[in-house]
Amino acid sequence: DGGITQSPKYLFRKEGQNVTLxxxxxxxxxxxxxYRQDPGQGLRLIYYSQIVNDFQKGDIAEGYSVSREKxxxxxxxxxxxxxxxxxxxxxxxxxxxxxxxxxxxxxTRLSIL
Amino acid sequence: xxxxxxxxxxxxxxxxxxxxxxxxYSYGATPYLFWYVQSxxxxxxxxxxxxxxxxxxxxxxxxxxxxxxxQSSFNLRKPSVHWSDAAEYFCAVGAxxxxxSYIPTFGRGxxxxxxx
Lengths: 113, 116
Fold this sequence. Notes:
The complex is a heterodimer of chains A (113) and B (116).
Chain A: E1 4-7, E2 10-13, E3 19-25, E4 31-37, E5 43-51, E6 54-57, E7 64-66, E8 76-78, E9 87-94, E10 103-104, E11 108-112
Parallel strand pairs in A: 2-11
Antiparallel strand pairs in A: 1-3, 3-8, 4-5, 4-9, 5-6, 7-8, 9-10, 9-11
Chain B: E1 3-5, E2 10-14, E3 19-21, E4 24-26, E5 32-38, E6 44-50, E7 56-58, E8 64-68, E9 73-78, E10 87-96, E11 102-106, E12 110-115
């Protein structure tokens, strides 16, 4: 079955450490997105990518970085510059032509040790 | 810029009762509207979408939503709630950005609690 795989499901970060969250999709979708979810705040867009080798900042990009070297993969790095990284991170993908709904992975919960 | 308001943070209903979750949007043109559901620790699943045409939209799991342009609303309804419907519900409005990208904006969510 086609879908989006996020790994790991749980991740712990030490102070001053960078961590990378994986997102892989086999839906042949052009566009991919990263969201951060905090209780009571809904989903906030971190980065998105419409095509390979191109990505754009979302509303809360500071302290995060991404790459899009392959259509199937859109990893997110949470850098040490992100002072409050504890959150639930969701990856999504969609067709980029027209108004298409997003498909979501099951998320990665990141916590600070 | 578009925005979405879900006025109710929590909604509590009894199993078998009807349900209506409210969603109001702000967008200058014809909106593209979605409802998603999220179970604890999971990703979001699409319930239904409205792009154009009939303003009453049927979705999965027995849900429906009605687009009312005059009220800028897209409320989600279900005639009889099941205990398994307890989850977080998100309304979203999609719009094309000036750069040609499609980026949805999500509401803050409504948590549905179902009493037996």
